[in-house]
Amino acid sequence: MEGKVESLWEEVRELSLGTTVDRLHSPPTPLQFLRDFVSQNKPCIISNAISHWPALSLWPTPSYLSAALSSSTVSLHLTPDGHADAIVPHPSHPSLCFASAHVQPTPFPQALDLIRRPPNHLVAYLQQQNDCFRTEYGELESDCDGHIPWASEALGCLPEAVNLWIGNHLSQTSFHKDHYENLYAVVSGEKHFLLLPPTDVHRMYIKQYPAAQYSYSQEKGEFRLELEEPERYVPWSSVDPYPATGNLKQERLKFPLYFNGPKPFEVTVKAGEVLYLPSMWFHHVSQSPGDDGCTIAVNYWYDMQFDIKYAYFNFLQSLPCRSIDDPTTPESACEEDSGPIASPNHLNRRFSGDESAKTNVHDNV
Q1: What is the mean pLDDT of residues 174-187?
Q2: If one looks up domain 2-347 in CATH, what number appears?
Q3: What is the pTM of this model?
């Protein structure tokens, strides 16, 4: 079984995905987008799809954003190191845990200043994922489109949520997947993605981790990481694709399926470009700021179709898999551990982990 699963990773690339992510120099027609990308569950980068947005010229000017949102209070996410929704050691717990950011209502001008001029002891990120663009940033709606017309026509619906992301170079998002069709438009700076198709699920070493939450004391300028009560577990990828140099050998031994398998697709999405990120693709995200000190993006989440592709993915995920390169790797290292399956409910999103029922939760980008 292990050899068949591993050969699937190569065959998917050879027969469907190729070796690079397609780049389109103009927006596709709805038919082309549906036929060549959505139906094939295949990502692409589109240029000149948002060149008409006023946001491209207005938002990189911090004074414009601060003036437009001068009276707005927004949800600011705070962490000690920029790693929110990530697997981290817990100071008083014997195992790793899934850590969520401290979320603090903050006047927008103050939030933007913390992002652009980060203090030594915290990293700030505007990344609330509850349709925040339409709920917290309504003053900016006229600066960009409310939906992507050719995508909406191809998918047969309007976006379920539209979100705004403003961060700096310190914020990263660990490997995860979303049960949404995602159109991700970068307005300022660059976003760097590592992408793996759903067929590579065994390479992600998804396990159950106890959920924890950062809390931040402004008076002390300190973070505390506290396990949630009652106890809750989150299925999450264990792989860090960029381990510290001294840990690289150890990480390769722990996660041979990831490090010895096909390389992830690496793409950089620049200002003015749109990434189509298909549903259920695993992605790791980092960012580089523009001249304004920020990376700014808007993303549109469209409901995915729970069709035969979803059934195939669930079947594949249920198969045990061990690495040919390291036959001593226990099967449980390649599967989700048994136990209560939950998901990060602090983000108010629609799906998470591998739950097929709709909830109000999801992952982040």
Answers
A1: 96
A2: 2.60.120.10
A3: 0.88
